[in-house]
Write a structure and sequence with these properties.
Layout (H helix, E strand, L loop, with lengths): L16 H14 L5 H22 L6 H24 L9 H5 L8 H28 L8 H25 L11 H9 L2 H17 L4 H22 L11
Helix pairs in contact: 1-2, 2-5, 2-6, 3-5, 5-8, 5-9, 6-8
């Protein structure tokens, strides 16, 4: 059985990037690698640390307040989903249910868990997070402005982290990804963080345009949520024999 997360999750929304990092670090240090959620959280923590460093040192960003707020809102959507799913995975958002229900499943490679988490968080949570931040800070999500440019610059950071963390999935108890072959390699080939984030921005624009049609907006997001969950079930399809689970 997966370890309960309630003791380490915040009682309310995280209010700063440092608090976000603190919660993710607690999850990273509490869960075991045999828990599928650990693999996504481990990846997400490394991404957040690198984005935090970039926001404090890089001069390429034009609106760091926007990026910082998005970082916080985005992470809180993850914490909310995990908090609900920790009590009852079926009550979690549809996009998150497959991962939260499969945390202790064998014959699923760690990389599949990481991809399933990325799928839920980027395809479902990111559009909602973008809309929330624009509602809080003002402005409108557009296909090309300073905030969108900063959003796209984060892709470069993500790709650096991907290269850094690849060894966590490719060495040690996990074994070489190249040796997996077959279904897992196919799922890796189909996943593109850059493309997923671009789609998330477009979906945020759609949700924004439906502000005056709340019923249609709710229906659109609900279908996006459920379709993302459907994709997650494919990403988490067991492989045989099991690779790299302790």
């Amino acid at each position: 059985m997966p370890l309960p997360l309630a003791p380490i999750l915040p009682n309310g929304p995280a209010a700063s990037v440092d608090e976000v990092v603190s919660v993710m670090t607690a999850i990273d240090q509490t869960l075991l690698p045999s828990d599928g959620l650990w693999w996504f959280n481990h990846l997400y923590l490394q991404v957040t640390l690198n984005v935090r460093t970039a926001m404090t040192t890089a001069t390429a960003f034009r609106d760091t307040a926007f990026l910082e707020r998005l970082d916080i809102v985005f992470a809180n959507l993850y914490f909310d989903a995990v908090a609900v799913g920790d009590v009852d995975p079926e009550a979690a958002p549809p996009a998150w249910r497959p991962l939260l229900k499969a945390r202790a499943t064998t014959h699923v490679h760690p990389l599949q868990f990481a991809l399933a988490g990325m799928n839920a968080h980027i395809n479902r949570d990111l559009p909602a997070g973008i809309v929330t931040v624009f509602e809080q800070l003002g402005g409108t999500p557009r296909p090309s402005d300073a905030r969108h440019a900063d959003f796209e610059r984060v892709n470069g950071i993500l790709e650096i982290v991907e290269a850094q963390i690849k060894s966590d999935f490719a060495t040690g108890v996990v074994g070489k990804i190249d040796a997996l072959g077959g279904p897992v390699d196919d799922r890796i080939a189909m996943w593109s963080v850059r493309a997923a984030r671009a789609t998330a921005w477009t979906n945020a624009q759609v949700l924004w345009s439906l502000k005056r049609k709340p019923a249609l907006r709710h229906d659109y997001f609900d279908r996006l949520d459920r379709f993302t969950g459907f994709a997650a079930r494919g990403l988490l399809a067991p492989v045989s024999p099991p690779q790299g689970r302790e």
